[in-house]
Design brief:
The complex is a heterodimer.
Chain A lengths: L1 H31 L1 E7 L8 E7 L5 E7 L10 E8 L8 E2 L1 E9 L4 E10 L2 E9 L2 E2 L6 E10 L2
Antiparallel strand pairs in A: 1-2, 1-10, 2-3, 3-4, 4-6, 6-7, 7-8, 8-10
Chain B lengths: L1 H34 L1 E5 L8 E7 L5 E7 L10 E8 L8 E2 L1 E9 L4 E10 L2 E9 L2 E2 L6 E10 L2
Antiparallel strand pairs in B: 1-2, 1-10, 2-3, 3-4, 4-6, 6-7, 7-8, 8-10
The chains are: A alpha+beta, B alpha+beta.
């Protein structure tokens, strides 16, 4: 009898753990897939549109499209690739869903990468932009912060 | 006479176009040769992490490979990397480089690291940022530094 109870408890623990991890995997893609609007921090420039089209629930690999608002690449679509990840919350630590994505703006030969986190229905990122032609050797990489909000 | 001249002119334009196209293909091939292979992070504070760039798509510039952490709970494991390689023709009085960016999801920790920089003199010089799921403070999830990667012989 005792052995049965132990076995049943073990089964319940495994089932609860499995369903919890499954619930996490399915909820993260649904929170991220869709269109997002880029907002430059401290600037009134019009932002680009980020369309996250898929998030692999096993690997966390993210895919999507980037649509710049203006310039020579304005209105064109560029492929976006990246990652989404998470970890179990830990006591006394702040917990977020981590995200990173990048886009190769082939019109200019430049690449921009965004690394940050998803919280309160916003993606907060730090970005680096690398351009192939620069006036000085030390002037190829620019950096800043952006916030992405959901397109209504 | 006019028709023959026009025909000759069209053939010349076609030939020039083909030469340009084969040159760009050759550029792509050299770009792949320069990047594909094993690279070691020279940042002593982080330890010698390695990346193995296994493929660079010559049409899109998409990069694929593996990342091996130098130490910690994830040491000895391999993680997929994804990213981009791009370039532009040199411009007068400007410094010209091949640009590169790649990222890895370290699922052991729930963190993601990204490198964005350039290839020059057989080195990848890149700004790096790391975002972690759990942090002591709200403002402390993203860290940044720079790394130099050198190609293994």
């Amino acid at each position: 009898m005792k052995r049965r109870l132990v076995l049943l408890t073990c089964c319940l623990i495994v089932l609860v753990g499995f369903s919890h991890s499954q619930a996490q995997d399915t909820s993260i893609p649904s929170r991220l897939i869709g269109k997002w609007m880029q907002h430059y921090t401290g600037m009134s420039l019009q932002g680009a549109t980020l369309n996250i089209t898929s998030v692999d629930s096993v690997t966390g690999q993210l895919k999507g499209k980037w649509i710049p608002p203006s310039g020579a690449a304005g209105g064109k679509e560029f492929n976006v690739i990246g990652w989404v990840s998470s970890a179990q919350p830990r006591e006394k630590l702040d917990n977020v869903i981590t995200i990173s994505f990048s886009v190769s703006l082939t019109t200019y030969g430049s690449i921009t990468s965004y690394t940050g986190y998803f919280r309160d229905n916003k993606i907060t990122t730090s970005w680096f932009n690398i351009k192939p032609n620069a006036t000085y050797e030390w002037d190829h990489i620019s950096t800043g912060q952006d916030i992405f909000t959901r397109n209504p | 006479m006019i028709r023959r001249t026009l025909l000759m002119l069209s053939a010349c334009i076609l030939l020039i176009g083909m030469c340009d196209s084969s040159r760009s293909r050759a550029q792509d091939a050299s770009l792949q040769n320069k990047l594909i292979g094993r690279w070691t992070n020279q940042n002593e504070t982080k330890g010698p992490a390695t990346i193995n760039i296994t493929a660079v798509d010559s049409a899109t510039g998409q990069l694929k490979g593996k990342y091996s952490p130098p130490s910690g709970a994830a040491a000895g494991k391999e993680f997929d990397i994804v990213g981009w390689v791009s370039s532009a023709p040199p411009v007068a009085n400007r410094d010209n480089v091949i640009v590169v960016s790649f990222s890895v999801s370290l699922t052991t920790y729930g963190s993601i690291a990204t490198w964005t920089g350039f290839l020059k003199e057989n080195k990848i010089i890149a700004s790096s940022s790391n975002v972690r799921s759990n942090s002591g403070y709200e403002w402390d999830h993203i860290t940044a530094t720079y790394d130099v990667w050198t190609k293994s012989p």
